[in-house]
């Protein structure tokens, strides 16, 4: 049985600029087809607009409020919200709260730097 606690996950910065702690992925577990990570953004912080040609993502907001933009559509999100991000969709999340934003990111296939393409909204 493999169990990973967030306290054991070593943080790293993704291509889009978010700090993540990979909980389960092919790099640290028996999981092969997806990844689960906790991402954190400081007050006023944002990821760079980007997309993933291969991976679909689910963001699940744990703490804080944010502005989520996907392919030009904008929505405010809060704890308990799950956000579907299909492959190829340009997306960006911005922390609009007065504390650190924490969210879970599930990617399938699992997150890889090479599957992140920087972009701009049309």
Structure description:
With 122 residues, the protein is an all-beta fold. It has a single domain, classed as Sandwich (Jelly Rolls), CATH 2.60.120.10. A 6-stranded antiparallel beta sheet has the order 1-2-3-10-5-8, with no helix packed on it. It has a 3-stranded antiparallel beta sheet with strand order 7-6-9, with no helix packed on it. The protein has a two-stranded antiparallel sheet with strand order 4-11. Strand 1 and strand 2 form a beta hairpin. The model has no long low-confidence stretch (mean pLDDT 97).
- Overall shape: globular
| Global Rg | 14 Å
**Spatial strand order of the main sheet:** 1-2-3-10-5-8
* Domains (count): 1
CATH top-level class: Mainly Beta
Structural class: mainly beta
Order of SSEs, N→C? EEEEEEEEEEE
Low-confidence stretches: none
Main pleated sheet: 6 strands, antiparallel
Distance between the termini: 46 Å
CATH topology (fold) name:
Jelly Rolls
**Average pLDDT value?**
97
Q: What's the number of helices?
A: 0
Record field, number of beta strands: 11
Q: How much helical structure, as a percent, in the residues? A: under 10%
Which architecture per CATH? Sandwich
Q: CATH homologous superfamily, by name?
A: Jelly Rolls
Give a quick precis of the structure.
With 122 residues, this protein is mostly beta strands. The chain has one domain: Sandwich (Jelly Rolls), CATH 2.60.120.10.
What's the structural blueprint in terms of helices and strands?
Blueprint: E1 11-13, E2 19-24, E3 35-41, E4 50-51, E5 56-63, E6 66-70, E7 73-77, E8 82-85, E9 91-95, E10 101-108, E11 117-118
Antiparallel strand pairs: 1-2, 2-3, 3-10, 4-11, 5-8, 5-10, 6-7, 6-9
